[in-house]
Amino acid sequence: MQDRVLVISSVSIWVYPVWVLIALLLCNVGVSVAQPAGSESFDFTIQKRSIVGDVKTIRVTQGSQVVVRWNSDEATVLHVHGYDLKIEVKPGAVAEMRFEAHATGRYPVTSHGFGEKSGGHGHHGTLLYIEIYPN
After folding, report:
1. What does pTM read for this prediction?
2. What residues form DSSP beta bridges with 7?
3. Is 11 exposed, middle or buried (0-12, 13-18, 19+ CB in 10 A)?
4. 39-133: what fold?
């Protein structure tokens, strides 16, 4: 199809076929619309130095606000590797960890000691993984 030229008061205006304009609008060519980041929350209980239940991995989308609440039968310090987040968890109290999932990847959550020696640099294996997927 050929473009048509419409002359109004000595001003040239290109008139595209209507189907081209509709196609551009429907395809959203060259336009990316950001989706609002969501909020994800998770609750975990640690008993006998392990996570209670079958969930060993949590999955969130990059940009999400993440809230993880922890309860434990022993004092411990939990560490999210890669994000360098640490939180002290005491028996009988809920500890809340909040962060924005800015970096994608798979991050282990480990304990830096249980009981009276919590907070040291000894690791007691991975309790949980946090996987952050691209937006």
Report:
1. 0.67
2. 12
3. exposed
4. Immunoglobulin-like (2.60.40)
